[in-house]
Each structure stands twice: as structure tokens, then as C-alpha cells.
């Protein structure tokens, strides 16, 4: 509760460590209470809900335009709550109203650049970079109100950091002129920019969205982006909706490389994918495509054994005997380097081996979109509205039991669906690593393979295995709070799979009837070294 606004979460059954993963937007006024009250209740269908704990958060103690991760202890040691708190979208003194004509101080830019120089790589290994985003304006938005207008505001998310602009009322061409800054913890994160329409009943309506990988940002580029639909496949509704942004990213390559082999930051507001027929079929097809590649390799090897092409079989036999006779363990990384070399030659001759992302029609049920929209909020009753409920009849209890069984079946099918998707994603990430989809990651792995080759050449394998065992057995003793991780999986988690590549694909800007609409569009600022 904040002032007169009150929201209620869904019920988490049979657990002492609930995860609600819900978002509530409150309106903050200077003349009202600045204390956020949070109450935890135990749902009781036969009687009054039981009080479990309460905590108060004074919003005046927290900085504006920053996402805070808070562990809030409940009164009388009744547990604690973890929440992400952001005070954003403020108007008045905090809003930059003349951003277009604002001149940045060269000394400030140089100071930030010096902070991330190679020579200062080991000063603060967790500080990967600094992102500045200027949100200028949007155009061509769809009308969401009865009067043919919308009340748009823009939300920027970088993993768990979430900031938003003020709302511009009754317009389809909002001008926000606001600047945001983010501390970058992982250079492989993705900036999500979403435009919503604000309604008076505290609901919001989706207007458009884009996803921008930080690795694709060009320093100081002022650029129009075509807004997409919720699934990030097609153009959003409206008159070719677009948004004008300028992004500037300072980062340290050494810190970013080290961070790549550590666990990826978990996004707390990411709800687990439920079972959907379309998603299940798509994941099966993705895995099938990977399996078919291995089947083709198997067919090729079998054709050599069966002497279907005698010349090819002779060449394969000679190569096999030479490799078997000369093989050493340090040659394993060299084999992978040869794959990189082959793909790099193709990459240089014909361009990127990334998928050609067409604006294909990915059909799906309309109701799938609503489940994925974090911001769509139904009217939630107040806490007092649901304090008591009549006892359940035996018939209702039987229906509830049947519903729980069906839910259990759905949970199992969802687990299978997501497991297939994870395996397919892992295989696609491996393929995209060798395809130079993200050149930084491909070159980083090439460097690691070269170092690995030298280590295997000079150091016997038994000593390397001993070092590996010592590290595993002593990790808990030396670093008791260290997170257990797998460096290979951590690396692959940064490589986008085919679905993510489609999400990040930029749609072509529609030819404007009046080119003056994009006046001041593509401009580059010179980076100050």
C-alpha cells in the first residue's frame, strides 16, 4: 500500500519461500505518505487470513532513477522480502526538458572513458561499463484511447534495472527528451525499450518494443528504431511506429572478457515459460534441425566406409591413418581453430553467417501475448476484500483436486518443453559461436583455444587433471560463498541462439512520406579518446 493505492499478489500454495514475480506501479505525490507498506498474509479459505508479517519502506531514503535491490526484513523476525524498487518517471526538476540542445562537457566524457581504459582493467573488475541512453521522441504510435490519441510513456530495462520516462498525454508523437544512465554488469546484456499507453484505471496497454544488445551499440549514434510487437517478430500496430534513441557505451574489454566466463546475472522478473502447443512444436523442430545435422555427418562417414565414392574413401582413409598416427592431445583445440578458420574465410567472402532474419509470420494464439506482458494488470481486489470466504463444499473440493492433477500434468509437459528448448538453444549457441554471430565472443574463444593449445603442449595432462581436482576439492574451503558454475555453459549463455537473433533483428524503417519526420535521425558523434 502507498497512500490510497493498494495491490494484492497472487497466492503461492504450500511454500515458505514464495516467488510472486509480479510488478506493481504506484503514483507518488509530494503531499502524500512516502512510506510503502507491505503486509504478508496466509490464505485461509475457511476463515480469516492469518497475519504473517509486515514491513515499511521509507521511499525518501532511496535515490531516484535507480533500481534498488532490497532485502526488507519483516517485523518480529518473521522472515524477509526481496524486491526491486525504482522511483522513476518523475516530472519537474528531475526531467531534462531541453535535451536536444544540451551540450555534454568533454571533461565529463573523458573522465568516464579514462575509468574504463585498459590500463585500469584491474581496479574494479565488477564495473564492466557505463551506458547512457537518450530517449528523444516517438512517432506513428497506435491510438489506444477513444479520442484517437494515446498517453504514451517509455520504459527502459537492462536486466533488473528498470527506468521510465514521464507520460505525455493525448498524443501519438510524444517527445520525452530524457536521459538515463545504467551501470553495465555484463557487456552481453540486452537493453529493452518498451512504449506503453497509460490508462486512468492504472492499467497499461502495449504500444511497441525493441531489444538492443549492448554489443551492437555504436557510440553516440542517434538513430530511429522501428517498434515491434510483443513477440519481437512483426512491426507494432500503428502508422509504422518508430522511436528515436541515442546510446553511448563505455566499457572495459578485459573486465568484460573475464565476466563472460562467470554466471550470467539472473533476471528476477522472468516468468518460467508455461506449456504452449506452438512453443513445444517450435522447440521440437529446433532440436530436430540440430539432430539432422549430425545424421548427415553420420551418413557421410558411412558412405566413406561403404566405398560409395572410391576416391573419397581413399582420401578419407589416408587422412584417418595420418591423424591417428600423429595425433597428440594438444591438437584438439587446433581442430576447433580450423573450424573457426574455415568459417572466417566464408565470413570474409560472403559476409556474416548470421541468419537472414526475415519478418516472418510467427503464428500464435492471441492469448499467449497477454501472459507474457508483465505490465498488463487486471483489477486486483484490496487486501480487505478477500478476508473471509465460505467453506468449500465436497463437490468444489473434488473439482479443486482434479484441477491440481491437471496442473501437475501441465507442469510435467512444460518441463519437457523447456528442457527440449534448452538443449536446442545450447546447440544453436555452439553453432553461432563458430559462425561469428557475435565477433567478440568468437575471437575470445579463439584466444582461449590458442592458450589451451600451448598449455596442453607444455604441461602433461595428468598435471592439469590434478590442478582441476585441487580446485574442485578446495573451492568450498577457500571460497565458501563462491557460486558453483561451469565456465563453458557460462560462455555459451552469452551467445544468442536463433530465437534471440530474430528478437534482436532490426526491422527496416518504412519510407516516410515526409522525410522531415526523421530530421536529426542518423547522426554520429565523434568519440573523445
From TrEMBL:
What are its GO cellular component terms?
A: synaptic vesicle membrane
Keyword annotations: Calcium, Membrane, Metal-binding, Transmembrane, Transmembrane helix
Which residue ranges does the record annotate as region Disordered? 363-393
**Xref: InterPro entries:** C2_dom, C2_domain_sf
Entry's CDD domains? Answer: C2B_MCTP_PRT, C2C_MCTP_PRT
Q: Which residues form the C2 domain?
A: 1-72, 106-229
Q: Which residues cross the membrane?
A: 314-341, 440-459
Listed GO MF terms:
calcium ion binding
One biological process term from GO is: regulation of neurotransmitter secretion
Query: SUPFAM superfamilies recorded for this chain?
Result: C2 domain (Calcium/lipid-binding domain, CaLB) (SSF49562)
Recorded hits in SMART domains, A to Z, give: C2
Segments of skewed composition (Basic and acidic residues): 372-388
* PROSITE patterns associated with the record: C2
Matching entries from PANTHER family are given as: C2 DOMAIN-CONTAINING PROTEIN (PTHR45911), MULTIPLE C2 AND TRANSMEMBRANE DOMAIN-CONTAINING PROTEIN (PTHR45911:SF4)
The protein's name = C2 domain-containing protein
